[in-house]
Amino acid sequence: MTELQTDPPPIVPPPSTPPSPPPRADRAVVRDALTVGLTVGASGAAFGVTGTAAHLSVLQTCALSLLAFTGASQFALVGSLAAGAAVPAAVAGALFLGLRNCLYGLRVGPRLEIPRALRPLAAHVVIDETTAVTLAQPERRSARIGFAVTAISLYLVWNLTTLAGALGAGALGDPSRYGLDAAGPAVFLALLGPRLREGGTERSVGALAVLLALAAVPVMPGGTPVLIAVAAVPLALALRQARANHARTSAGTDHAGTDHAGTDHAGADEEARR
Amino acid sequence: MTVWIAVLATAFGCYLCKLLGLSVPAGLLDRPAVRRFAELAPIALLAALTALQTFGQGTHGLTVDARAVGLAAAGIALWRRAPFLVVVLLAVVVTALVRLL
């Protein structure tokens, strides 16, 4: 999610500088990391309010922030429970979202080279924000600083604001009066935004998922429309494949087809690079 | 009690996902099809959740209300590359203002 506010990687000093990086570069990483930790962490308040509005206790709401510590899954779980989903469906939706953290681990692991003993602890904070900051760094030292500072500041702020939100919710009364029921979907949308910029396949998946989920609401049990939306992935991939094939076959007969094939190849290249 | 089960199962499962990513040797989960699915599945889920929590009402109802306006404002802010917190706050404030009208 932090592609949004992560500044471009700090300017690296010229190569003539001695091996130990100057404190200026370190300070820049720390500043970026703190910006992410503090701003994103503050939305823990929205989660605290949402959690208690969904009839979780203050303790349950805080337990999620402390132990699950991955915003999208947390919002998904309480949202599904509030909408009357059965526990297995609600948990499955949250875990599906949590799967992306597994991919993040695959990417940040080699960058950080975390000592084996620290891995169980470090794993807990491998999430959207820490990954974004880590991958934006040009070298291992700044990657490690960025990861650690983002992780610690975000963990502290996210959990403190969750508690504040959960406690404050009772005093507020009906949270929808303050528009706080829009916080959850807005968090999802903000996480989604940068992904939709990545390419046509991403946008097709998003659009198909919305259609599938909304179509499923009236007829399927609570909590399942989210899971059904995952079918958008194979569907979108099949559609793109069919279009690419179509473009390739018509490429032999006319020039318009060649153009199509060209753009599809560009898309494929772009995907291959990631 | 069932809520506690949901909370703890989610916490445990989420932690396992994170630990797995850091623990498996690079390349094991790196088959292109697996990777592509794992990259795209969150997009499907986030898009679906955005739509469901914007238009959903109760278990089986759909409606267009103040949330839709708030989310539209958030969408515009996002398109203009506003920071995360601004996007969320804007959705909340606009939704609240529409309800006041």
Topology:
The complex is a heterodimer of chains A (274) and B (101).
Chain A: H1 23-42, H2 44-53, H3 58-68, H4 71-82, H5 87-112, H6 119-123, H7 128-135, H8 140-172, H9 183-196, H10 200-216, H11 224-228, H12 232-251, H13 255-273
Chain B: H1 2-23, H2 32-55, E1 56-57, E2 61-62, H3 66-79, H4 84-100
Antiparallel strand pairs in B: 1-2
Helix pairs in contact in B: 3-4
Account of the protein in words:
The complex is a heterodimer of chains A (274) and B (101). Chain A has 274 residues and is mostly helical. Helices cover 73% and strands 0% of the residues of chain A. Chain A has two domains: 197 residues, no CATH class; 77 residues. The relative contact order of chain A is 0.13. Chain B has a domain of 38 residues. Chain B has a two-stranded antiparallel sheet. In chain B, β1 and β2 form a beta hairpin. The longest helix of chain B is centred in the middle third of the chain and has 24 residues. The radius of gyration of chain B is 18 Å and the shape is extended. Chain B starts with a helix and ends with a helix. At the A-B interface, α1, α3, α4, α5 and α6 of A face α1, α2, β2, α3 and α4 of B.
Please sum up the structure shown:
The complex is a heterodimer of chains A (274) and B (101). Chain A is mostly helical.
- Main sheet properties of chain B: 2 strands, antiparallel
Globular, elongated, flat, extended or rod-shaped: what is the shape of chain B? extended
- SS strand fraction of chain B: under 5%
Structural class computed from helices and strand pairing of chain B: mainly alpha
How many helices of chain A? Answer: 13
Q: Total strand count of chain B, please?
A: 2
| Helix-residue proportion of chain A | over 70%
Question: What number is the mean pLDDT of chain B?
Answer: 89
Using only C-alpha atoms, the radius of gyration of chain B works out to 18 Å
Give the termini separation of chain B. Answer: 40 Å
